[in-house]
Design a protein that fits this description.
Two copies of one chain form a homodimer.
Chain A lengths: L6 H8 L3 H9 L6 E3 L2 E3 L2 H15 L4 H12 L5 H48 L7
Antiparallel strand pairs in A: 1-2
Helix pairs in contact in A: 3-4
Chain A binds a DNA duplex (30 and 30 nucleotides) through α2.
Chain lengths: 133, 133
Amino acid sequence: MQRYFTITQLTQEFDITTRTLRFYEAQGLVTPQRRGRQRLYTPGDRTRIKLILRGKRLGFSLAEINEMVGMYGSAPGEIGQLRLLMDKIQARRDELLEKQRDIELTLLELDDVEAGAKSRMVELVSSGVSEGV
Amino acid sequence: MQRYFTITQLTQEFDITTRTLRFYEAQGLVTPQRRGRQRLYTPGDRTRIKLILRGKRLGFSLAEINEMVGMYGSAPGEIGQLRLLMDKIQARRDELLEKQRDIELTLLELDDVEAGAKSRMVELVSSGVSEGV
DNA sequence: AGACGTGTTGACTTTAACGTAAAAAGAAGA
DNA sequence: TCTTCTTTTTACGTTAAAGTCAACACGTCT
């Protein structure tokens, strides 16, 4: 059983560069163990990286992602901190819901554009031009 | 009836700076008319700006946004161009659908984190600490 | 005419998120 | 052991998307 991943294994799996992974480490987003100088990534690290990349796809900055990922392991022992955490959760949720609406709207508009393109296509074809497949 | 918007009206409405709007113009994303040196934004320009900002919220680059917004007005007169357009539309749609899935997953994880925080809160409270509202 | 507010242009600066290159250190196979 | 490959560290470069600052141009209110 392979307990650790090397840096290049992960770069290949996620199609990123070593520079990127080391940069994320410098930002405190992942903290792989070391065997000598070499980095060893655990499955947990791998999961964090997945989360980071998902955050990136959604347009969050690394700073925001850092905060979000930081929520996962944390079980703040104090009530005030817990309230703060829940506030942050709600804020993120609101953002995500807004993004959802934005996506819906964009998809609808894409449908419109496509419909226009299709009808335009029909026009062109029926106007007598013979076109191959 | 107010046919045009000034630059500051729009910056206030969308909470951006004049620098941003002029930058978008330099990138060819909007092309307001001029009265002398002054920029005059039409309702159409305003709509474009809305689209741009929506794209930004979804994490698209200005270059990508430029391409997307460019799709709207275009009715390419040639079949090959139309096919290309439809391909681009499909590519964007795929991206958006992926973002949707990413959002769903993230929302689910936020639910988990919140549930954990809540139960942790109950523990703390029931362990005898008297806390105000 | 003078002052004020708003707008414009141009130039330089900044920040995030990496890219790229150089030099050295281990690891692994012939 | 020699070579080859991967990895690491350090440092400088780059790109996108603005921020900041200076100087100048209008319109208008007094």
